[in-house]
Write a structure and sequence with these properties.
The protein is built from one helix and nine strands; from the N terminus they run βββαββββββ. By secondary structure, the chain is mainly beta. It has a single domain, classed as Jelly Rolls. It has a six-stranded antiparallel beta sheet with strand order 1-2-3-9-4-7, with no helix packed on it. The chain has a three-stranded antiparallel beta sheet with strand order 6-5-8, with no helix packed on it. The radius of gyration is 14 Å and the shape is globular. 28% of the residues are buried.
């Protein structure tokens, strides 16, 4: 197991992200603080990974690891094995690779992710994690 240390203070705002990606029905604001990438996801109503992101990723299922916190909205996640879960506002979540996910209802899904953030929404990422 690797040990991570924060060695310097760093503060950034999603109001001025290091990088912004806006694929179909989605917005990803990315900030790097020291060696850590953090993303704010805003996924619009009707967004579904298998419909809106699969063409960029070029894989059958999402291969990213996700560790995050839902600010608002609702998302359904289903693993390749058929395990299903719903993420609501104020939920923390961990999702392993091998899943589909979609926004439920009329409101956007807004979350902050701490794992998988830098490569999410990057064309051809194929689940490969990278710094911004």
């Amino acid at each position: 197991m690797s040990i991570n240390f924060v060695t310097a203070m760093a503060v950034k705002s999603f109001d001025v992200p290091d990088k912004k990606r806006c694929p179909d029905k989605a917005e990803f604001d990315l900030c790097t603080v020291n060696d850590y990438s953090v993303a704010r996801l805003i996924l619009g109503p009707g967004w579904r990974w298998s419909v809106n992101t699969r063409p960029y990723e070029r894989t059958d299922v999402c291969l990213h690891h996700h560790l995050g916190f839902c600010i608002s909205g609702e998302m359904e996640v289903e693993t390749a094995e058929g395990l299903r879960s719903t993420i609501h506002a104020n939920d923390t979540y961990a999702i392993p690779p091998g899943h589909d996910e979609w926004v439920v209802g009329p409101n956007p899904f807004v979350a902050v992710e701490f794992l998988g953030a830098a490569s999410f929404g990057r064309s051809g990422a194929r689940g490969v994690h990278a710094r911004i």
